[in-house]
Amino acid sequence: MRDFLDKHNFKKITKHGILQFSKTLPINNLLNRRGMNILLIEDDEVDVMNLERAFSKNNIIYPLYIAHNGLEALSMLRTNKNGVPPAISANNLLIVLDMNMPKMGGIEFLQELRQDIRIRSIPVVILTTSNQQQEKIEAYRFNIAGYIIKAEVFTKFVETIAILNKYWTLCEIP
């Protein structure tokens, strides 16, 4: 990873659990040119690293923020009690959400997100190992943009992320 970052003059910034990659963006990364930000809500560090690797393999380079559960994500998206503004703007944001997490899982997060008028319109894509039909039905009741089962083989996962990237390059996000 360090070689990739050095080769492309990237800086890796870690602050309060937030990872961000920044640089002048390549022309083929349409999400980046549009100012897209991604909030990954994932408790498994191996899955976080796999997503970062899949982004790297697909030359997907834009700010990636990480929360380890729904509560942490909500605190990043909301103004706190002391009036401190959110860590992440809701504008041009896509949330990639795991379903099974400690403290606050995916469904509970979706309930809170959709009840908050300031952040309810943020698009959410589920990326999970859970293949339970009832969980899929419940997630779609909260107007998710898609429900994707994580591929077990890394090469398939990389292909899945490439397809997701292509899809979001076509979508207009407020």
Structure description:
The structure is a single chain. With 174 residues, the protein is α/β, with parallel strands linked by helices. The protein has a single domain, classed as 3-Layer(aba) Sandwich (Rossmann fold), CATH 3.40.50.2300. The chain contains seven helices and seven strands. The protein has helices at 2-7, 30-33, 45-57, 70-77, 106-115, 133-141, 154-170; strands spanning 11-15, 18-22, 37-41, 64-67, 93-97, 124-128, 146-149. It has a five-stranded parallel beta sheet. Helix 3 (45-57) links the parallel strand 3 (37-41) and strand 4. Helix 3 packs across helix 7 (154-170) and helix 4 runs parallel beside helix 5. Mean pLDDT is 81; it is low at 4-33.
